[in-house]
Design goal:
By secondary structure, this protein is mainly beta. It contains 1 helix and 7 strands; from the N terminus they run E-E-E-E-E-E-E-H. It has 2 domains: 56 residues, no CATH class; 49 residues. 5% of the residues lie in helices and 39% in strands. A hairpin with a 3-residue loop joins strand 2 and strand 3. It starts with a strand and ends in a 13-residue tail after the last helix.
Length: 129
């Protein structure tokens, strides 16, 4: 069965084929450029896709790492709090991420964010209230 879809790993539109092997498994026929992707998957991994043909994301804006995950970068620190546990206090920060799905915010540990993204902490300091 052919699947017509934009290939996020290549700027060209490709047709992918998949074969049913057994009762609950499928195998993709992938181009050599996707040799690091495991081609066999279980039917439980299939999801119904209701594609919006008018929705197009420029491929130049999509960043994928070596593990084939979308790379979303933090934009700014929105807020700062202290998470109080029984015997410890953990500083956390609310981070706004650059996401193609729209604005996305998560609470992250401040120490881990400072290690990965020190540039977010050099500009302005958000006071905790």
């Amino acid at each position: 069965m052919p699947i017509n879809d934009e290939n996020p790993w290549n700027s060209k539109s490709v047709t992918l084929f998949f074969l049913r092997i057994g009762k609950v498994a499928y195998k993709l026929e992938l181009p050599p450029s996707l040799g690091n992707v495991h081609p066999t998957f279980h039917v439980s991994n299939l999801k119904k896709c209701l594609a919006d043909e008018n929705l197009h994301i420029p491929l130049d804006d999509v960043h994928i790492d070596e593990t084939i995950h979308f790379v979303e970068k933090p934009v700014e620190i929105m807020d700062r709090e202290i998470k109080q546990l029984k015997r410890s206090r953990i500083p956390i920060v609310k981070v706004r991420w650059d996401s193609k799905r729209g604005p996305e915010f998560t609470w992250e540990r401040e120490d881990q964010m400072k290690l990965k993204y020190p540039h977010l902490f050099t500009d302005a300091v958000v006071s905790s209230s």
